Amino acid sequence: MPQDPHAQFDSTVLDKIELSPIGAVPHTPAYQDAMKRLYASHQVYADADHKDGHVTARSLASRAYFHADNLEAVATGKIADTALEGNAAIFERYLQSLNPAQRAKAEPYRATVPGKAIHHRKHAGAVAPAIHDPIHTLFLVPGGGPHPGLPGNYLFGFVAEVPPKAGAGGWEIQLHDHQDGVEIFAASSFAEAFEKLQDVLASAPFHLSELDELGFHSG
To answer: For the chain, what is the radius of gyration of the CA atoms?
Structure first.
């Protein structure tokens, strides 16, 4: 099989992006052609941390992902969903993983990304059963989308219990960039949603559009 004639130069461009403190490359035709190839192959994303900068997928490969620490125990029925780690705590762990500049930019998202805390309520009366609040648990993974992700180049999403639709189950995985890019996977059970989440986490970093291969669709 003939070798890609652009491979060596494209590798040099990836190195240059990673060496640049702002993810910049020269604005020459050769470099811009290389950037088109690298974006098309999802080896480079728009950098969430620097305007007009770029970030390589390989540089994000060592980044941690975040979800409820006890999510597996809840999904497998070992503990009640009322014990699920809250979204605010998950988001706080993400914040603490960032450098100070990224953390300052991410802090305003604390009010919007985690969502309102769910308080598990009970009916009036001592013997009445608790009202079931739908699960809506946060996770964050490194990657990009039609728009950059959150600071640190993170996409965020939820494993969510939703009203069943015709022919579909009552669970979804939703994954977002920081604007309107969103991919959705419909699942028939919490167990199926949790299993698909493992596939998503194992695939990171990725561009949102690549999730089509895992059965997601654009929202």
So the answer is: 20
